[in-house]
Amino acid sequence: MVSAQVIWAKALPVLQERMTPTSYKTWIKDIMPISVEGNTLILMAQSEMYLTTLRQFYSNIVTECVNEANSSNYTISFIVKEDKEDTPTSVPTPAQSTSDAGVFFGVQSKYTFDTFVTGESNRFAHAAAVAVADNPASAYNPLYIYGGSGLGKTHMLHAIGNYVHNMHPEFNICFVSSEDFTNDVIAAIKYDKREELRKKYRNLDLLLVDDIQFIGGKEATEMEFFNTFNALHGSNKQIVITSDQSPNDLPFLQERLRTRFSWGITADIKPPDVETRVAILKGKAERDDVNITNDALLYMAEQYNSNVRELESCYNRIVLYANFSKRSMIDRSFAESVLKDYVSSEGKHMVTPDLIKQVTANYFGITVEDLVSSRRDKRIAVPRHVAMYLCRTLTNISYPDIGKAFGGKHYSTVMYSCDQIAGEIGQKLDITTAIDDITNRLTNDLSLK
Ligand code: ADP
Ligand code: MG
């Protein structure tokens, strides 16, 4: 008889193909195949929380993919460790969670209110966000936050998610980018899984939707979002939306959605003043344990006045180059020299996107062709995100140009990838190690020591 392990190993690539990378990573990757009993394949989830969600939302797609991959007709049964006495000891212990824990997906733990610096530019939006986090579905619903790129909208959205999750572990909470929402809608239509899509988004207590402007003009997605919005709002569940523009200025958006967005409260975020920018950098330097003078921080803050993402990227570049050259203290003149292409001015090679792609591919044991392909499986997608992040941090090229260097990806995809990695540094061991090792290899390659 075929073992559960073999059956499951065949099903994984099919599942990976069908699901968004986030869903696959969150729900499927850590499932353990246990045994086959008669016609039933027994799969083990990490904890009760996963069990509930898998049974509720993913059992159809798992059943389908298992049977498709194995040309079989198995029924799937999900269990957790406690359900079965003879589970292997190598199995990881289920995470601490109670059976009434809610689903909590997409929220990055790094972005909290604690690390969000307030100033005149964002005071109102921050206050509204905290009010909503404190009183979901009773303060303002929806909360609509808008502002230019890199001003902290996504950070605030995650912060609300983390805060509500801490206060109400039983809440079902989902953070989704419009891009992932769109992909979910497309997949649901393609594979006739609309019911699952609805279950996923309509049983939430808090829905956090990032960059709503990207769903504008996509008819099926707008319609699905409209219906999701109505279902959640109608049953008194909180919705928070971010966008780069106010509802009135959003092109394409259907009038009925525009009207709904104005039911709650709209808050804008403006570019931060110089004190706030310095405070943001100071907070980062403290958390990163980086030795840096106030004068150097002020110099950086003066270079970038309209985008915190750019400002952080400049800070990251200076810190990385300080590591390259084994400096223990960053002062203003060092910061200046890095921003003025210190490396080339000393007659040494610059780090180029091509070199970053090569070294990253090499580090992960894949090819540069894989890296620039459109494959979305984790083995390729994670190295791609890392390489994009390094291009953004170590070179001066723009998001659209990085997109071009990676096989013609849209700039928003590049931005998400970079943000994703930025959020994972210091949180996920494999990502943190990869960034460290690859930058070290780049150092050696370029003999920048
Ligand atoms: P947006 O979504 O508006 O494009 P993000 O939320 O992704 O911007 O912010 C970009 C980066 O800047 C993130 O790393 C975020 O943590 C940081 N950032 C932005 N505003 C602040 C702030 N007020 N305090 C601390 N960090 C901030
Ligand atoms: Mg954002």
Q: How would you characterize the overall build of this protein?
A:
This protein has 449 residues and is of the alpha/beta class. It is 55% helix and 10% strand. A six-stranded parallel β-sheet has the order 4-6-7-8-5-9, with helices on both faces. Strands 1-2-3 form a three-stranded mixed β-sheet, covered by helices on one side. Helix 3 (48-70) links the parallel strand 2 and strand 3. The radius of gyration is 23 Å and the shape is globular. Magnesium ion (MG) is lined by residues 153-154, 210-211.
* Helical coverage, percent range: 40-55%
Order of helices and strands: HHEEHEEHEHEHHEHEHEHHHHHHHHHHH
Would you identify the regions where 5 or more consecutive residues have pLDDT less than 50? 83-99, 342-348
Described by strand count, sense and barrel closure, the largest sheet is: 6 strands, parallel
Overall mean pLDDT stands at 86
Structural class: alpha/beta
Distance between the termini: 58 Å
Anisotropy-based shape: globular
Strand content: 5-15%
Oligomer class: single chain
Small ligands present: adenosine-5'-diphosphate, magnesium ion
Radius of gyration, whole Å: 23 Å
Biggest sheet strand line-up: 4-6-7-8-5-9
Helix segment tally? 20
**Tally of extended strands?**
9
Secondary structure: elements and pairs:
Layout: H1 4-18, H2 21-28, E1 32-37, E2 40-44, H3 48-70, E3 75-79, E4 104-105, H4 123-134, E5 143-147, H5 153-167, E6 173-177, H6 178-190, H7 194-202, E7 206-210, H8 219-234, E8 238-243, H9 255-261, E9 265-269, H10 274-288, H11 294-303, H12 308-324, H13 332-339, H14 342-345, H15 353-364, H16 368-372, H17 378-394, H18 399-405, H19 411-424, H20 429-446
Parallel strand pairs: 2-3, 4-6, 5-8, 5-9, 6-7, 7-8
Antiparallel strand pairs: 1-2
Helix pairs in contact: 1-3, 3-7, 4-5, 6-7, 10-11, 11-13, 12-13, 15-17, 15-20, 17-19, 18-19
